Amino acid sequence: MRKPVSSRSPVLYRISVGIRRVIRRFVRLTSADKLAVTIAETTLPCSITEHRSLLLRKLAGTDLDLQRNKVKTLQEACSKVNGVLIHPGETFSFWRLIGNPTAGRGFYPGLQLSFGETVERIGGGLCQLSNLLHWMVLHTQMTVTERHRHAYDPFPDYRRTVPFGSGATVFYNYLDLMFRNSTLNTFQILLNVGEEYLEGEIRSLSESEMVILIEERGHRFIRRNGVVYRENELWKIESSRHGGISSEKLLFANSAEVRYDTTDLPGVFVSEE
């Protein structure tokens, strides 16, 4: 994938980011979306879905100090989101609640993907939180209205518990994760940074009548013109609690360039196109 011109110069990069952020602020000011901002101290009664992800990835070449910084960053971010209510008609915005992840606001340097390469930046690692939120929201009847993902597969799997291509990357403030509650139910997000895992749960005011499954189909590694890609499809399957599938919907057809050596990786077979 060809890199944009702004990636070739630090000055051009800062100008590009600044312009995009100004545009995004204007869009937010003129938007009719009612954003979720209410933080409740009490938890709603019904559990809809929960998930957790490993905090420290023990892979070759990873800086454990930066990963520990990421944990501190996640603790700060979770404190700003934990307990938030998404009432009917409201939209959740990742950046509306967390704000600008600067050192002065309690965020730390961590690893961040930029144009397919890892760089050290303040707030690096917040994508782990957006990934977890996105995965949980897919298991509800809320509607994702903005989601971005990387065009690369940067690391081999390490204790992965969700399908490839289910993440949501964020970058302040113009790459956001947003989802709307178009139901009549009220939802709540609960987050915790534990000893080993980032933990999340979505609860609601009343129990859902639907059971939702995210299913991966057609997962493969394939080499085209000497470049390895990883591909799959993710489907959302909704079933009634009383039995029977009510709908199947294709969510994503993923294809990403692999940025690690697949040779001798357990369980990885690369087919040739």
Describe this structure in words.
- With 273 residues, the protein is α+β, with helices and mostly antiparallel strands.
- The protein has a domain at 33-206.
- The chain is 21% helix and 36% strand.
- The protein has 4 helices and 15 strands.
- The strands form 4 sheets. The chain has a 5-stranded mixed β-sheet with strand order 8-14-13-12-15, with no helix packed on it.
- Strand 12 and strand 13 form a beta hairpin.
- It is globular, with a radius of gyration of 19 Å.
Q: Secondary structure elements and their pairing?
A:
Elements lengths: L9 H21 L3 E2 L10 E9 L9 H18 L3 E2 L3 E4 H5 L10 E6 L2 E6 L4 H12 L4 E4 L5 E2 L24 E3 L6 E7 L3 E8 L5 E15 L2 E14 L4 E14 L11 E3 L1
Parallel strand pairs: 1-4, 8-14, 12-15
Antiparallel strand pairs: 2-11, 3-10, 4-9, 5-6, 7-9, 10-11, 12-13, 13-14
Keywords:
single chain; 273 residues; alpha+beta; 5-stranded mixed β-sheet; 4-stranded mixed β-sheet; 4 helices; globular
Short account of what is shown:
The protein is of the alpha+beta class and 273 residues long. Helix content is 21%, strand content 36%. It has a domain at 33-206.
Order of helices and strands: HEEHEEHEEHEEEEEEEEE
Total number of β-strand segments? 15
Name the average pLDDT.
Answer: 92
Q: In angstroms, what is the radius of gyration?
A: 19 Å
Low-pLDDT residue spans = none
| Count of helical regions | 4
> Which term fits the overall shape?
globular
* SS-derived structural category: alpha+beta
Query: Residue share in helices?
Result: 10-25%
Approximate strand percentage:
35-45%
What gap, in angstroms, lies between the N and C termini?
18 Å
Largest sheet composition? 5 strands, mixed
Widest sheet: strand ordering: 8-14-13-12-15
